[in-house]
């Protein structure tokens, strides 16, 4: 079993108006095999948490820690984190013109595993994973995310999740922009990855819809840069009914 | 990519425009008097009367005033590094020319009084005229009418640094289909004139590779005449040499022609790579598309791109677009980028221009690194991807492969 542990994390960014603190003391422990859902209002800092775990240079950790099985994640570069087993499915996947999906997937897989995958197996794995996620095989020859629709980008994030087999996946609103069928297909992909690799999942979402397919063990309410409340799956239903008013009032 | 340095100076003006066909509100920005500023962060100074239509042409070097470096078409070129190409008679031995071609293609060496010399253009600057006057002979490569799958490689090998002149004429016969590669290697100081005569209905891909040794100085005027319904794909690839200045011009001789002008350059420390192109739309219903992409790395790497597109009064139904994109890899480089679009008729299908110069898009880098790819490899992927857009246009697998290797080698130089 592996553990991703976030302790009293404070994160700020540089803006034109000066330094702005966005995360104000986040603590969260995820073990492999567990699914944690994070819900919270727009702008509360969910994506900031996800990007900070992945190591985006825009975010500065001012105090607190992130460790993976005791190893200091904050000391690692972005690529080292990925190779250590962290995966971020981004809210807004980036287009990389001129780099084909095939080339990208193979290059990333080779980097993560430390050796090139056997060509025969790899080609088959990619084909199967694409078919499972109902991604048109023609996408293999397209440039990374270039011109993909919102939903297609999200599927391709999950394709990578399945192929790269991380220990921990952070899914930042992977469900937004997906139609009903795609939501199901993508959720199944996440569940497959979880079963096969006993992956730990941090699922950021605004909707309980996806939680019908991906069952969370824990639900955390994220408000103003902190976790305001934690509970089981029932908390999600309550949030859907009541919204975030009671948290925001406390805050005001 | 992110538009850090100076961002977009103009974007596509396309069909479906508000009042005049082919115009958007941007139309008013497209006059040559309103300079779409260069991309170095400083606005470039424009000489007011710079309409491309008014530029003198002549076969005689005396018809061009001695260069001062302040001329519109020389203002970015360091004349001191021209190796005398603009001053002295060019008496050095011309680089050797070797032609490999599929059956049916004729290769001749002819005197400068041959009728085919001068069939596609008249010199437009002093160096070109100097080369014309100094050349002892011209190599004429002729693709016969209706020939298909023709491949020609012209290898120009420089053998010394004495200023010299070179003349090449390529004739693509009516309705022929051909690929001609002009490959420059070795050390030379040369003023070169290349005439490209694309006869009616022909489709010619012309690739000019500037892979010179690092001391070469090369000024190449490449003038194309495009016949009725003919198609020219011109691809300039520059990465070698100390100073390289390629000036391709495409002129339509009849309606229905198409010109695609692509370019790829990779400038290292101290290198000056300049591309100035001209598309002269004087005939109805012709199309042109220009895309030049460049990467710069190292102290003093300097690239210049100037794209003059002139849509004359009679060129109704023109569809034209030009773009230049530069990727800056290190500090200490300079990329000048000036699109000039002059439009003298409102009756066009479209006309637009774009120019961007920027550093790496950090988001692309982050995305690739977040998938485990180390920074150096991620940077290479991004640069290769950036340049790939042009390489993919070539359509000749061996050549694409070779250029990919060249890009690799250039990138490897960054690491050391
Ligand atoms: N570069 C930036 N400049 C200024 N503010 C920023 C910047 N990046 C993030 N922020 C601010 O940080 C806060 C947290 O943003 P974040 O994207 O983490 O929110 P979120 O919880 O993911 O919201 P959403 O549910 O809308 O995705 C927001 O108020 C946002 O405006
Ligand atoms: Mg977000």
TrEMBL record, chain A:
Protein name: ABC transporter ATP-binding protein
SUPFAM superfamilies: P-loop containing nucleoside triphosphate hydrolases
Keywords: ATP-binding, Nucleotide-binding
Keyword Transcription regulation: no
Organism: Zafaria cholistanensis
Assigned protein family: Belongs to the ABC transporter superfamily. Ycf16 family.
InterPro entries membership: AAA+_ATPase (IPR003593), ABC_transporter-like_ATP-bd (IPR003439), FeS-cluster_ATPase_SufC (IPR010230), P-loop_NTPase (IPR027417)
Gene3D superfamilies from the UniProt entry: P-loop containing nucleotide triphosphate hydrolases (3.40.50.300)
Automatic annotation (TrEMBL), chain B:
Pfam families on file: SUFBD_core (PF01458)
Residue intervals of the SUF system FeS cluster assembly SufBD core domain: 160-386
GO biological process: iron-sulfur cluster assembly
Region described as Disordered: 1-57
InterPro entries in UniProt: Fe-S_cluster_assembly_SufBD, SUF_FeS_clus_asmbl_SufBD_core, SUF_FeS_clus_asmbl_SufBD_sf, SUF_FeS_clus_asmbl_SufD
Lineage: superkingdom: Bacteria
Similarity comment: Belongs to the iron-sulfur cluster assembly SufBD family.
Name this polypeptide is given: Fe-S cluster assembly protein SufD
